[in-house]
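Collaborator request, handled under Task 6.
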Amino acid sequence: MRKSVLMGSVATLLFSVSSMAENIHFPEEFVPLQVGERIIESSLFSRVEDLELAPGSYRLKLKYTDLYDEDYDMHEVVESEPFWVDITIEAGTDYTLVFNRAENAVAAKVFAQSPMVSLKAKGSALAAPLSVVSNNQLASEAPVRTMREAPAGPEKPSRPIKPIAPITGKGMPSAAQMLDFWWQQATVAERKAFLEKVTN
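Structure tokens returned to the collaborator:
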């Protein structure tokens, strides 16, 4: 009896470990948009900082966005076009997306034209550079691949894209997230008036 209970516990433990997903953490400058065909749901106030993925290979769509101070009350947002990276997740390993942040907006604009990112395994000293595929490159490859792979006959309807919920499952946005959002929406005059109000 004891032996069967012990074997059942070991089997349950092994199954639960194998079904667990690994975590990827994203710095605030990168927004994960899509995993393969699955859209990553997020809101203006709640960005996705972590994704849990089962071990395997994935194509991940990201966007780079960063904020730089220009003057006392002026800021510049630098953004890239969405781009794709191919990643491989190994069992039992968590990861962080890493990059070299530009020192100023000019350098950030250069970075945004051709982002370079790496995936660093937790506990590892080295990060593995990821190959970046732009949306334009992907679009130019798609028709050729579709023509080769498409069977003769009537065209099948494409499968709908299913969104996946944010893994972090945040509820209400923080005050800092709300302030940041409304700051980006404000005009220069509104920003100046706000700064005068909070500094007096």
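The cover message to the collaborator said: "The longest strand covers residues 56-69. The two ends are 75 Å apart (CA to CA). Please let us know whether this matches your experimental observations."
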